[in-house]
Specification:
Layout: E1 10-11, E2 15-20, E3 31-33, E4 42-44, E5 53-54, E6 88-89, E7 97-98, E8 106-110, H1 111-117, H2 122-127, E9 167-171, E10 174-175, E11 199-205, H3 210-213, E12 220-226, E13 232-242, E14 245-257, E15 264-274, E16 277-278, E17 297-298, E18 305-307, H4 317-328, E19 336-338, E20 348-349, E21 354-357, E22 363-365, E23 368-382, E24 385-403, E25 418-419, H5 424-432, H6 442-445, E26 450-453, E27 464-485, E28 488-510, H7 512-519, E29 531-533, E30 541-543, H8 592-598, E31 599-622, E32 626-643, E33 687-703, E34 707-717, E35 722-732
Parallel strand pairs: 9-12
Antiparallel strand pairs: 1-2, 2-13, 3-4, 5-8, 6-7, 8-11, 9-10, 11-12, 13-14, 14-15, 15-23, 16-22, 17-21, 18-19, 18-26, 20-21, 23-24, 24-27, 25-26, 27-28, 28-31, 29-30, 31-32, 32-33, 33-34, 34-35
Length: 734
């Protein structure tokens, strides 16, 4: 038995497409054919080829097309353009019509266009579609304006730039559950869950379709149509490489009749991998603060600055904060000083702060691993009656989401970051570097209390990694029955679908109370000293009974914010990146055990479920002149988000875990600016909600001698509101 492996079908400077054709395993009805004179083989299903139609103009009488009906044509750019009357478009209307007769703009993107453009994934295809803008794909969430709401492994369709939630996404003409994330402006469907190898074409309606599909189709519709009649076996391998990263996809699809019957089964598997692209791989991301560039720079960092307030010890909470603020805005060398290790470790001494470039610990593209499965079964139930059943499963993982070494505290003036004169990092600084801080002697340097103004970890690194992922499942079925009403042909379609999407969204976080303890020498998982909630303290807590524990002794550790605890910088290009820090003193570094103890994560498990039941009756009233369709749809959506315990405001609303003294008894919410147990990262309240929608719709299609018209109306009854959307569209041939 001989194996035939295809040569590349398309080669470009950046993208190589490779299809492996295993001829001995092909079923009857599959043919091997050379393409465009290349020495290549491809499996060609026995059904008619899909259509690529890009706003094809109406066919004219006596045109050149009349003499070459059904032939293949390439335009000047080499994109295949088949005649519109070869395909029946099912998007934008409940009445199946040839695309040439449609009085609205539908763009049909077939597999050939996807390969011509070198679009390995659906998100890449929509990035190149002029009607789509604001597409979210592989980019880190800092760079797609989604903050920490959307994981980087999802992709959307955003027609006309009106918002992804305003574009209705269908799979084989039926709805799909939205992304399991609570978003400003509404949720959207993750099209990254659809296997690209199973898609036959994508029909894009580039105008409002609320009258046809409902109020969530204001921007348009994208209908993903699968290869339901595929026969044979096909393996597709593709790889895109670019400087610093690349994408790879491997997929397989099989289709054929079951036991010689009329029942047709198609199933496909696909795996896609997107490699990591670090921010430092691109020079434009790592700019010098001295040039005036400020993107990717924070005015708080580590090394940081040290405040020297004039405190008596008897200040009220507000007076304490005011005095720290006065010192912060006071005179350098008197009220505060910048850590002398600032520039050497890669910071930028601005005189009043040590700026920190956090960009190297971000990613431009996150590494993702995606597995997709799709299967469908079609066949007859009786004469004039057919069925369709489909199932989808997809999982996508971000195994190591990168984020910065630490975040700035929400409040830098609450006294949490105390530096006493017993602090070992301070004592070393005062012994060896008192003059750089404006002090006359070591003794002068060790007077009074200081407060640190900066990050927990900065130029020393390392960054923090998190795991994110989503899962999507779907099952849908429908029965299509031909019937006669008043002697005229009609069709009844009844369908149900269930889809579910789950996923987690998380972010790194630093416990406020553990930082409080570590700054005072009682840090570490085995120290045994705790805190007590105290509303009179600006930090919201005070030190608990230490018992026999001593600060910095045994299992109790100090956190050291000084540069003398960092031997090498992890900041690219820093003077002490490759050369050791001359201020470093062994034994003053922060242990990984201490930092791990201070750090945790806020994680939210999200879920969205959608159930749809619908029936559509369509038919013809006047032959070739008047068609109709009307129907009913019921859909029910359930959404929920459950945060982990440490990030759950219902369980831990205050700065001290388990404490509820910060809750206002009237509003039931936290008092003051601080909420939750962390110093920067927000917690969440759990929530769950559901909505039922009843929808009735109707449509008339009028075919005149020189034009076509569409009349449509849609009525939706939601739980508390309703919506009525009418529509008229027309096309006239001059």
């Amino acid at each position: 038995m001989q194996d035939l492996i295809c040569l590349p079908e398309h080669e470009r400077s950046r993208i190589v497409w490779l299809r492996a054709c295993l001829l001995p395993f092909l079923l009857v009805g599959t043919q091997a054919a050379a393409t465009d004179g290349e020495e290549a083989l491809s499996t060609t299903p026995s059904k008619a080829p899909p259509v690529s139609l890009v706003d094809t103009p109406p066919r004219q009488e006596g045109s050149e097309h009349d003499n070459h009906e059904g032939e293949e044509h390439r335009d000047e750019e080499g994109v295949l353009d088949f005649h519109a009357n070869d395909v029946v478009v099912v998007t934008g209307s409940a009445i199946e019509e040839s695309a040439v007769d449609l009085p609205y703009a539908v763009e049909v993107l077939n597999r050939e266009i996807q390969k011509e453009q070198g679009s390995l994934q659906v998100v890449d295809l929509f990035k190149n579609l002029t009607a789509s803008s604001g597409v979210i794909g592989e980019a880190n969430s800092w760079y797609n304006d989604q903050g920490h709401s959307v994981p980087e492994n999802v992709a959307n369709v955003n027609l006309r730039g009106l918002g992804a939630s305003r574009t209705l996404v269908l799979l084989n003409g039926r709805r799909q559950t939205p992304l399991p994330a609570r978003l400003f402006g509404g949720r959207f469907v993750d099209v990254n869950a659809f296997p690209s190898i199973t898609l036959d074409r994508i029909e894009v309606l580039k105008e409002g379709a609320a009258a046809i599909y409902g109020s969530d189709a204001v921007a348009g519709v994208a209908n993903f149509v699968t290869r339901d009649e595929f026969i044979g076996f096909e393996v597709a391998l593709s790889h895109e490489s670019f400087d610093g990263a690349g994408d790879s996809t491997a997929g397989a699809i099989w289709g054929g009749k079951l036991g010689g019957s009329e029942h047709h089964l198609v199933f496909s598997l696909e795996r896609a991998e997107r490699s990591h692209l670090a921010a430092e791989e691109r020079s434009y991301t790592l700019q010098d603060r001295a040039t005036g560039w400020f993107w990717g720079w924070s005015n708080t960092g580590n090394p940081g600055i040290f405040l020297q307030p004039n405190l008596t010890g008897g200040e009220t909470s507000s007076a304490f904060v005011e005095e720290l603020a006065r010192a912060r805005n006071g005179t350098a060398g008197t009220d505060y000083f910048v850590d002398p290790a600032c520039n050497g470790l890669g910071g930028y001494d601005r005189g009043w702060t040590c700026a920190f470039r956090y960009q190297p610990w971000d990613s431009l593209i996150e590494a993702t691993e995606t597995n997709r499965f799709f299967a469908e079964l079609n066949g007859p139930l009786a004469e004039g009656t057919t069925y369709h059943v489909e199932a989808l499963y997809a999982e996508s993982i971000i195994p190591d989401y990168d984020t910065t070494p630490s975040f700035p505290p929400v409040s830098l003036l609450d006294g949490l970051q105390l530096i006493s004169n017993e602090h070992p990092g301070r004592r070393e600084h005062c012994n060896s570097s008192f003059g750089t801080s404006g002090f006359a002697s070591t003794e002068d340097c060790l007077q009074d209390e200081w407060y640190f103004y900066g990050h927990l970890v900065g130029n020393a690194g390392p960054g923090r990694g998190l795991r994110r992922g989503t899962e999507t499942t779907r099952i849908a079925a429908n029965i299509d029955h031909d019937l006669s009403i008043g002697g005229k042909a009609a069709n009844l379609d009844v369908g149900v679908s269930y889809s579910r999407a789950t996923g987690n969204m998380n972010d790194a976080a630093e416990y406020a109370y553990r930082k409080f303890l570590a700054f005072r020498g009682f840090g570490g998982p085995n120290c045994g000293v705790g805190v007590v909630a105290d509303d009179t303290s600006p930090s919201g807590m005070r030190l608990g009974d230490p018992g026999s524990a001593q600060p910095g002794v045994g299992n109790c550790m100090y956190y050291n914010p000084f540069g003398n605890g960092v031997e090498f910088s992890a900041q690219p290009g820093a003077p002490w990146e490759d050369s050791p820090n001359p201020m470093y003193r062994p034994g003053l570094e922060n242990s990984s055990a201490l930092l791990d103890w201070i750090n945790d994560e806020v994680n939210v498990d999200n879920e969205a479920e959608l159930v749809v039941a619908e029936a559509t009756l369509s038919g013809n009233w006047l032959p070739e002149r008047l068609d109709y369709a009307f129907g009913y749809q019921y859909r029910h959506v359930d959404v929920s988000a459950i945060p982990n315990a440490v990030g759950n405001y219902a369980l831990n609303p205050c700065v001290v875990p388990g404490d509820r003294s910060c809750i206002d008894p009237v509003t039931g919410r936290q008092r003051g600016a601080r909420a939750g147990t962390f110093t920067f990262t927000s917690g969440y309240y759990p929530y769950g909600d559901s909505q039922a929608v009843h929808r009735a719709f109707g449509e008339l299609s009028v075919n005149a001698l020189r034009g076509d018209m569409q009349f449509a109306a849609n009525y939706e009854l939601h739980d508390e509101i309703d919506s009525f959307d009418p529509k008229f569209s027309g096309r006239w041939q001059l």
